[in-house]
Amino acid sequence: MMDFNYYSRRQIELVEFSEKVYHKGLRHTGINGCLYEDILLKYLREDIPEFTFFKGQIRTDNNSSPQYDIIICKKDTPQKDFLKEINPYINIVEREDCLGVIEVKKWAYPKMISCAGDINRSYELFNAVFPNLKYIFVCFRFKDRKKGGDNVWEICKSELLINDKFCFWGNVHHIDSEWVFPWIENKPLIERNSSYLGEYENLINTIKNLI
Predict the structure, then answer these.
(1) Residue limits of the DUF6602 domain (predicted)?
(2) Domain ranges, residue 114
C-alpha cells in the first residue's frame, strides 16, 4: 500500500467516491451533483471544525441570493429549525454569518474555465453583490479534451479571475483502471495524478486563513 498523508487520502477518497457513484449505476445529473457537494461539505465540516458549512442561500435583509453549492460560515451559525428537521446541510444563511462560498464541479474543462467561460461569469455576478466575501472554485476532475498542448489544468486555470481554485484529479486514461476499488491501492492511477495531490490540503489552508 502506498503511503499518503491524511489530506492526500481524503482527496483520493473524494474523487473515488465521485467515480464509484457513477460506476454503481447512479447517473442522474442532479442527484449526482448533490452527492459530490455533500461529501465535500461533510469532509470540510470534519476537517475544519472552527467553521461550519451549508449549502443553500445567503439572506441580506429580506432578499435571498441564488443557490450556492457550499457556503462557508462562522462556527456558531444556526441552521433554520424547519430545515434542520429534514436535511442537515441545507440552510438560509444570514449575510453576517457568511465568510464565502465554494462552487463545486465534478468535471471542469478548458472552455468552462476560459476568460469568457461559465465560472468567470458566475464569479463576476457573485462579486458584484458580495465583494467582501471569498469565492472559491473546486473541481473534482479536469477534462483536457485535446491531448497534449496547453489544455492542462495548470495552464488553463490562469484564465480564471478567481484567486483560489483547486482541482483534485486529471482526465480519464483508461476507465477500466479507474473502476477498480479501492483507489488507495491503485498505484499506477495515483502516480498518473500525483501532480494534483496536495490540492485538498491547500483548500483546507485557504479556508482556515479566513479567520
Answers:
(1) 24-106
(2) 6-209
